[in-house]
Design a protein that fits this description.
The protein is mainly α. The chain is built from three helices and no strands.
């Protein structure tokens, strides 16, 4: 788990709104989301791994949303 409850990462949205969805924007989103999560170190993975996964999943979600909204 990335946190004990669902997180709304407003800075993550700000990293994308009004910008082209390019590698730089996705990198910024990943860093912001990774920094916002509060994972624990357990048998499912380390804190570092969980933060990395949170950033990757945020980027994938942004790309999927963009494609579904008619982007390429």
């Amino acid at each position: 788990a990335a946190a004990p409850t669902v997180l709304l990462v407003e800075e993550g949205a700000e990293a994308l709104i009004g910008r082209k969805l390019d590698e730089a924007a996705l990198d910024r989103l990943a860093k912001v989301c990774a920094g916002a999560c509060r994972p624990i170190d357990d048998k499912r993975g380390t804190i570092e791994f969980s933060r990395k996964v949170a950033g990757v999943l945020a980027g994938r979600a942004a790309q999927t949303a963009y494609a579904r909204a008619g982007g390429k």
